[in-house]
Amino acid sequence: MNNQQVAKYYALLGEALEDKYLEPDMDEDIDDMSIHLGTLLSGHTVLELGCGTGFWTEVVAESAQSVVAVDINASLVDIARERGMPEGKVTFRVADALDLPEDIGNEVGKITAVLVSFLWSHLNKKEQEGLLATLKKRLGKDVLLVLLDDSFVEGFSETIAKTDADGTTYEILTLPSGERFEVPKSYQSDSALRKRLGNVAKDIRIERVEFFWILTCKLK
Q: Which residues are CB-neighbours of 173 under 8 A, at least 6 positions away?
């Protein structure tokens, strides 16, 4: 990942990454997204990018045929491995989503769906375009692509601290230790998402709940 601040922040956050899901008002949205993901990815061989501690990996593994779960942080992958996933369904890999190994997915055969979990919003425009180009090159057309990410919620989400010359927006995130990190974070509108993916994807659909949004499409 080009911005190593993001990777370092989440590595240091560790298990506390899931603390945000303890927000009582988020319960209904988590349930809705879990059901939706389970339906979308049922029977698929899934490549998950940005699996973190495996919160959503565990959701997907319930209905998917199999999952290859990838994260850049070995420490987070170690936490995810301890979740007790369905036997034989999940393979974990430590890798950068922007520089995927050529053999990714070989453990389970042909990948039929990709889930990008809360990673898209941390990528700048060039990185987003690079990720899409890599997926298209490695996986070919008609693969289902699912982007799951945060919606901006007043009073809950961090405020945008700055915007750089390329239009990338940044938040200041603070660890429980008090250490602060400036990381890229975007909250894209439906129109911006459609514009970004329009050249490489078809059948784009976007749904939003209060805390999350989910985009589904097929690579051209």
A: 9, 158, 180, 181, 182, 183
